[in-house]
Design goal:
Belongs to the major facilitator superfamily. Sugar transporter (TC 2.A.1.1) family. The radius of gyration is 22 Å and the shape is globular. It is an all-alpha fold. It contains 15 helices and no strands.
């Protein structure tokens, strides 16, 4: 009987961890929405009229200038690059913590959506794209980090793949929304405003989820870290895992702060090369 109860408790904890990983992956869902919605909107007659202010917006062959379209798409990427830059992102990840950073990035995403959906000028739309990019740059880093630190080692790989799955799901949902809304009057605005729903859910919901136990230990809040681990792993594994985290942090501290030059030396250089190559190949095949 005790074995059944223990097995049931382990199942409940596993499901809880899976739910936390899936819920936080809404940050990736927002990324997918932003990737997927912009193309059809640039071809939308109402967008050409309200934002691009084209005189021939009603004509079937009217198009926004290619350079302008490129800037609209690129402003999102510029925001991503800036907020994901290590000197900036590390401040939020280490000082604010994983959970608070997700909430902050989600709030920034909401601001970007509002700016884009209510704009009457191209300049303000570009600002909205940039602000949204700032949000996604942070979310791209912090969501998978939070997932990996919440998950037990045996589930870490499986649960962090939810990030990529939710990006592609977001792209699909954005395509469906565009198909249903874009060609209606002010439909392009509605397609952007709909993104506020998962954004608000992410910001509000993360408040009720636990902090990363590794981050808590990093801040010397070991009692809180142990409390989180007990809820996620059970009492038997919690103490052992906390000891491992503390030992790992101490070992890392011995080597001091990492330097940029270490990225281009030895095995780390090989891993960086593989990571960059995978990202480049992913983009080259159309993702």
């Amino acid at each position: 009987r005790k074995e059944k109860e223990r097995s049931r408790a382990d199942t409940v904890r596993t499901l809880r961890v899976a739910f936390i990983a899936l819920f936080s992956a809404q940050g990736a869902f927002l990324f997918g929405l932003d990737i997927g919605y912009i193309g059809p909107i640039l071809d939308c007659d109402q967008f050409k009229r309200d934002v691009a202010h084209l005189n021939n917006w009603q004509e079937p062959d009217s198009k926004i200038n290619g350079a302008v379209s490129g800037v609209i798409v690129a402003m999102f990427s510029v925001g991503c690059i800036i907020s994901s830059f290590p000197l900036i992102s590390s401040y939020f990840l280490d000082t604010w913590g994983r959970r608070s950073t997700i909430m902050l990035a989600g709030t920034v995403f909401l601001v970007g959506c509002v700016l884009q959906s209510f704009t009457l000028s191209m300049s303000l739309f570009l600002v909205g794209r940039f602000v949204t990019g700032l949000s996604i740059g942070l979310l791209s880093l912090v969501v998978t980090l939070y997932q990996s630190e919440i998950a037990p080692p045996e589930l870490r790989g499986a649960l962090t793949t939810l990030y990529q799955c939710m990006i592609t799901f977001g792209i699909l949902v954005a395509a469906v929304l565009d198909l249903a809304l874009v060609h209606r009057e002010n439909g392009w605005r509605a397609a952007i405003l709909v993104q506020l729903i998962p954004g608000v859910l992410l910001v509000v919901g993360m408040y009720f989820l636990p902090n990363s136990p590794r981050w808590l230990a990093q801040q010397n809040r070991k009692e809180e870290a142990l409390e989180v681990l007990v809820g996620l792993r059970g009492e038997e594994r919690a103490s052992t895992e906390l000891d491992e985290i503390v030992a790992d942090l101490a070992e890392t501290a011995k080597f001091g702060e990492p330097t940029w030059s270490e990225m281009f030396q030895g095995r780390i250089s090989q891993l960086v090369t593989i990571g960059v190559a995978l990202q480049m190949l992913q983009q080259l095949v159309g993702m």
